[in-house]
Amino acid sequence: MTGAGQRPPSSPVCSLAEVEGHDMQQELEVARWRRAERERLRADRMAMAVAARQDWAAALMRHLSAGLSGWLGDPKGRVISGYWPIKGEADLRPWLTELHAAGAIIALPVVVTKASPLVFRHWYPGMVMERGDWNIPVPPASAKVLHPDLSLAPLVGWDRANYRLGYGGGYFDRTLAAASPRPFVVGVGLQSAELATVFPQWHDIPMSVIVTDEGVQSNSLSRSGAPR
Ligand SMILES: Nc1nc2c(c(=O)[nH]1)N(C=O)[C@@H](CNc1ccc(C(=O)N[C@@H](CCC(=O)O)C(=O)O)cc1)CN2
Ligand SMILES: Nc1ncnc2c1ncn2[C@@H]1O[C@H](COP(=O)(O)OP(=O)(O)OP(=O)(O)O)[C@@H](O)[C@H]1O
């Protein structure tokens, strides 16, 4: 739903501080609005019944399987990063396991250094995990560091220009900004987590594509080239 929480931060006629082209007052307002939206969307997601969450994940995996060859070609020998589900995220590990069996190389994100790009470590089904930042299970430090060809990015919220609202660490943005070449990024989330806009900021990097329970969310911007 794009209704209730969707009120743009007020944009002042004349901002108090403008530094290096960044309107700081507007940035603060957007940050505050994002915190409230994250909270709302995460609460909605946590309130889902187990069966509904499983249906959501199953639908995502169907749409991901259907889209994969168009995004990446043959997954054999390619590096695909997923995520270990937390906080009501869709559990896509069966899909990662299937890709592993098909010869893809699977990686999971790790926060090695706070406020820095994520590191992707090799993962295989059944691997013994360690506890990482935020208590997220991660492959051990001995696992090989990889550079994904395709990355799944879990969405808390999203908009039709393919922008993502995450947990507020800025990790995916930093990771994509630092990656060369950039992976193809597939944002995965709930259709109901659509926002009219996430009010993209200087640091936000759009997803290559967004997939929800209702399928691939194509939009005119991404079809005609770079969103911004
Ligand atoms: N399952 C899963 N794994 C993932 C991610 C994810 O979104 N989902 N990440 C995707 O990035 C990375 C972890 N992201 C994190 C993002 C924020 C914070 C964090 O400490 N957040 C602060 C709030 C920050 C703020 O609002 O300024 C907090 O909750 O206290 C930790 C990890 C890597 N692994
Ligand atoms: N490339 C970057 N360089 C420096 N700081 C960045 C960069 N990208 C994001 N940040 C910082 O991270 C903060 C949080 O960003 P944002 O609100 O986009 O998080 P998010 O995408 O929801 O989080 P996450 O990816 O961790 O789930 C921003 O306020 C910004 O200051």
From TrEMBL:
EC number assigned by the record: 6.3.3.2
InterPro entries, sorted: FTHF_cligase (IPR002698), FTHF_cligase-like_sf (IPR024185), NagB/RpiA_transferase-like (IPR037171)
GO BP terms: folic acid-containing compound biosynthetic process; tetrahydrofolate interconversion
Enzyme class: ligase
Cofactor: Mg(2+)
Swiss-Prot/TrEMBL catalytic activity: (6S)-5-formyl-5,6,7,8-tetrahydrofolate + ATP = (6R)-5,10-methenyltetrahydrofolate + ADP + phosphate
Swiss-Prot/TrEMBL keywords: ATP-binding, Ligase, Magnesium, Metal-binding, Nucleotide-binding
GO molecular function, one term: ATP binding
Superkingdom of origin organism: Bacteria
Family, per entry: Belongs to the 5-formyltetrahydrofolate cyclo-ligase family.
Name this polypeptide is given: 5-formyltetrahydrofolate cyclo-ligase
Native organism: Fuscibacter oryzae
